[in-house]
Amino acid sequence: MIKKALLAAASFAAIVAAQPAAAEDLKDFRIGILGGENEADRLRNFQCMTEQLPEALGVEKVSLFPAADYDGVIQGLLGGTLDYAELGASGYAKIYLDNPEAVEPILTTIQTDGSTGYHSVMVARKDSGIASLADMKGKKLGFADPDSTSGYLVPSVTLPKDIGMPVGEFFSETGFGGGHEQLVLEVLKGTFDAGTTWASGVGDFNDGYTSGNLRKMVDKGLVKMDDLVELWKSPLIPNGPIVVRSSMDADMKTKFKAFMMALPEKDPACFSAIQGGDYKGYTEVNPEFYEAIIAARKAKIGS
């Protein structure tokens, strides 16, 4: 089954360039998967969707399209060649600022403590001698991806308040790690002195929290939390949205939303796999839920 998904992934570039099918003729439901994690793992996590959605939606098949980075999925959604994706708030803001009618945010996750937000966290190697944010002055900081909310937008906006000066003046250098998973690996390798990634902020840091990139890396055996130290945590960030193509048939949207709402109880393993950790379930959202992030992105980056 993974091989079939890999074959679908190989045609990502082609589908981004293709014209979207008319909604009433939709036979292949196309899922965009953000970059930042090993491709085989992303395909494996979403495999359950390819098995269950055809019957639920009445389509012939479901195809997975894992992009190399965040922008690959964003462009697919803007072009109408993807039907559903799970985005960070900043990625959604980028789409909204380009074309507010391209996608509809319909759901977001609920953390185990009932909140609908998460955090950006800055981590460093425990044996680096860096134990606090102040220790990072004059050091090299890594961000995850230019379109990541927690990996770039939020830290770039909120860190100056905590360090008392612009990011470019406090750190000797900044750069991008090529996604959340790769960023943490680069921190462990010493490419960056510290890096920003995402975590629920719920539970114990020593476990990688209840969900987020650190937790996924712990579960996959890629990192031991004993090797890391947390230097900084952002204010709460709105959980990213599940979005669907706005031009999709209304009945298809209703069926898809119902499937997703039922998923946490119907198939907890699938729900946990696609979300990357422990969550309570989903709740409805609309564009207004992301107004602050849209404004922050517009002010900091533009579209």
From TrEMBL:
Keyword Cell membrane: no
Leader sequence residues: 1-23
Entry keyword set: Signal
Bilayer-spanning residue ranges: none
GO BP annotations listed: organic phosphonate transport; transmembrane transport
InterPro entries: PhnD (IPR005770), Phosphnate-bd (IPR017797)
SUPFAM superfamilies: Periplasmic binding protein-like II
CDD domains: PBP2_PhnD_like
Record GO cellular component, one term: ATP-binding cassette (ABC) transporter complex
Record family assignment: Belongs to the phosphate/phosphite/phosphonate binding protein family.
Family matches, as NCBIfam families: 3A0109s03R (TIGR01098), PhnD (TIGR03431)
Protein name: Phosphonate ABC transporter substrate-binding protein
